[in-house]
Design brief:
binds heme C; Cytochrome Bc1 Complex, Chain D, domain 2; mainly alpha; single chain; globular
């Protein structure tokens, strides 16, 4: 089932300037992702497709850092995956919110748990 935030029309005439969106819209997008239940099995497929080239098949790192041996909160994971950080690309829009929730579930339940 698709849960849509109520009370907001699609698009609209008020195009916020991008820097304002980035500065003020962050928490809302993180909440959007964290509201979804992640599926670690699908998350593994997303991870191998999208993340493993930089972070390694098992998360132990490559051109990107080791993300298996530290545990970050789901909030922090959602933030870095949505918006990127330094050389880490942003995936908001590139992956669906569900795919991001799935990959977070895979990181927390599988990679960081092992
Ligand atoms: C093009 C290479 C690249 C890809 C693709 C990539 N990352 Fe990253 N990632 C990085 C780099 C580089 C950093 C370190 C960013 C920094 O210096 O702050 C990073 C940082 C992170 C961090 C934070 C680690 C920390 O110690 O703060 C997480 C979590 C993460 N990536 C998860 C992912 C996930 C999940 C995906 C797939 C959806 C992904 N990354 C795809 C390069 C990449």
């Amino acid at each position: 089932m698709l849960a849509r935030p109520s009370g907001r029309g699609p698009g609209g005439s008020h195009a916020d300037p991008l820097p304002l969106l980035v500065a003020c819209g962050g928490d809302g997008r993180i909440d959007d992702v964290l509201a979804l239940e992640g599926d670690p099995t699908n998350g593994e497929a997303v991870y191998l497709d999208t993340c493993a080239s930089c972070h390694g098949d098992d998360g132990s790192g490559g051109s990107g850092p080791d993300i298996a041996s530290e545990s970050e909160s789901e909030d922090e994971l959602a933030e870095v995956i949505l918006f990127g950080e330094e050389d880490m690309p942003a995936f908001d829009g590139d992956l669906t919110d569900q795919e991001i929730a799935d990959v977070i579930a895979y990181l927390v339940d599988v990679l960081q748990a092992g």
